[in-house]
Specification:
mainly alpha
Length: 184
């Protein structure tokens, strides 16, 4: 057996690093060596990776991610009208679509760091949650509709109701701030 030599070596070393049985430890080391050998032969066969190709790959994955977010936002626009959409998912679709397609952001982009938090974290989280609440057949039908609509229109729809909702939220926040600081 090929593990015998490694097992004998471990027995000679004593209990210093052997928390497993020597034969089991030998098998584990043998598997690790095979994995390392496999990885080194794979990386030697691959072309050299440079910084420019890594940047291009990252940029391409970000573009793909942005296209998927845009497609799923339009898909939610169609899913909110689908008869098989559950009520909770429909409400979340309406909120997400109104926010995603609104020409006004809840947190303006000119505010450092926080301005992009809603675009990077909040919106994808709402889209993810809404998609998780939808039945699979509704997602498939609405994605086909969204892709066809985006191909035909070449733009995403705008939600002026969402813009009005965001303006109302801003007015409510300003009113609460005024009430908190200027109450007599």
């Amino acid at each position: 057996m090929q593990y015998a030599a490694i097992a004998i070596w471990f027995q000679e070393q004593g209990p210093m690093h052997c928390d497993l049985h020597p034969v089991l430890k030998a098998r584990q080391i043998h598997r690790s060596l095979l994995q390392i050998e496999r990885l080194t032969t794979q990386t030697m066969d691959q072309p050299e990776i440079n910084e420019r190709s890594v940047r291009m790959a990252i940029a391409e994955s970000m573009r793909t991610w942005a296209r998927r977010i845009k497609r799923d936002a339009v898909m939610l626009w169609f899913a909110r009208r689908h008869p098989d959409t559950p009520l909770l998912a429909k409400a979340l679709c309406i909120f997400t679509v109104a926010y995603a397609l609104s020409p006004i952001d809840l947190i303006p982009d000119f505010i450092p760091v926080l301005g992009y938090v809603d675009d990077v974290l909040l919106l994808p989280s709402f889209i993810w949650l809404a998609v998780r609440l939808l039945p699979h057949h509704v997602i498939q039908e609405c994605r086909v509709q969204a892709e066809a609509w985006m191909e035909k229109e070449k733009a995403k729809p705008a939600s002026y109701a969402g813009a009005i909702g965001i303006v109302l939220i801003w007015i409510a926040v300003l009113g609460l701030c005024w009430w908190y600081f200027y109450r007599a």
